[in-house]
Amino acid sequence: MNPKVSFFVMEAPEEMRESRTDYFNEEPVNLGPAPTCPVCDRWTGLKTWLPPYRAEIEVWGKSWCDIGFGVGNAILVSDRFRQWYSGFELAGIKSFHSAEIVKIRRRHGVKGEPPEYFLATVGTGRAAIDQAASGLERKDGHRDKLPICPECRLGGIIHRIRRLVIEPNTWSGEDLFIARGLPGHFVVSERFRNLSLQSRIVGAAFVNGEDYQFDHYPGEGRLA
Questions:
Q1: What are 172-207's pLDDT values in tens digits?
Q2: Helix (H) or strand (E) run with residue 194 in it
């Protein structure tokens, strides 16, 4: 029997007093086509950000971060992160591209110049969310009344999730990935999380999949 694999959701720290970086596209912003599912032809992500990669960053805390969060399937990472990721032969990032930081909003006293940053595009692997085990609930939207696609696992609007469970036998070993059926969320392996904490990678929080939940309609009172 294979040992149980634990997954974590990687996100920006909630406490603004912690070291946290948010990034925003800075003009000129060139966008390419959005990725689509080869089976149902649905959009599976936002339009692709094309070079030049110029970003504004908002920095909280007293330390420059190794990971910054924005929108879409990309994170902003320091050169330290890039070398750390390569040194441990982690998997899941599709590409690194040099990013120019053109504007900085400093909060809580971060000093000096920022490190060299790169835009890291995270791939959608074969790992898929187990909808039933995760307690994931959807509702049809007026623009999306098609059934859930067996490939991209999209369909309807996600209202709530009670935990993150990856469908057995779908994960192929990526350490950082977007799970099919749950766009916009970065999932990491236990190895990624442990190595990140041991190496003091700054700027990310990790929530155990068993404890991860959200509810976009809390007024309904259904999330236990």
A1: 999 999 999 999 999 999 999 999 999 999 999 999
A2: helix 190-198
